[in-house]
Specification:
By secondary structure, the chain is of the alpha+beta class. The protein contains 5 helices and 12 strands. A 6-stranded mixed beta sheet has the order 3-6-7-8-9-10, with helices on one face. A 4-stranded antiparallel beta sheet has the order 2-1-5-4, covered by helices on one side. Strand 11 and strand 12 form a beta hairpin. The chain is globular, with a radius of gyration of 20 Å.
Length: 205
Amino acid sequence: MGTAQPILKYTLAEYLAFEERSEMKHEYYAGDIYAMAGASPTHNQLCFNLGGLLFASLKGSECRGFTSDQKIWIEAAGLTTYPDLTIVCGQAQYDSEHLTLLTNPRLIVEVLSPSTMAYDRGEKWAFYQQLPSLQEYLMVWQDRPQIEQYSRQSDDSWRYLRVAGLEQTLTLASLSCELLLAEIYSGIEFPPPKSPRPPIQIVPD
């Protein structure tokens, strides 16, 4: 009978060294390294649209934005990940030992993909809530003009709001700005709506 091999775990420093050499992005969680899925053209266009709108809205303020190449570190969860967009207000703060790891985002945006939707809306959202600095979390749908928004309240609870429809306005209280969904989704072509159940097939006699 063979001897069981121990499961190899990586330190944060080992992960960061690996990530510097890798051509792909990876998340680090509790000693394990996970490959991140690639993004669709629609995903990338939504990130571009939203990043441009936020840049214009925040110009002259103390807030700045980061693209999906910026790693954030959630120490309480032991997670390093790459949000699609990150906004920091005031001085950006980084881990004292690993100066590439941002630790104080005020707003995080994830554009939902079919392969990661459950994670972004579930476990990953639970991890993000462990960031004391986070005030708002946005989940942007690709196949419809819809954004799910969580906003931190004064009692540390989170208020959920679903904003749907190109005529709607998204209010970001943490950044004191408003964005039109028609502008966020400018140039996006939506797939035809799916029927909730398969059609009946009539078989001739």
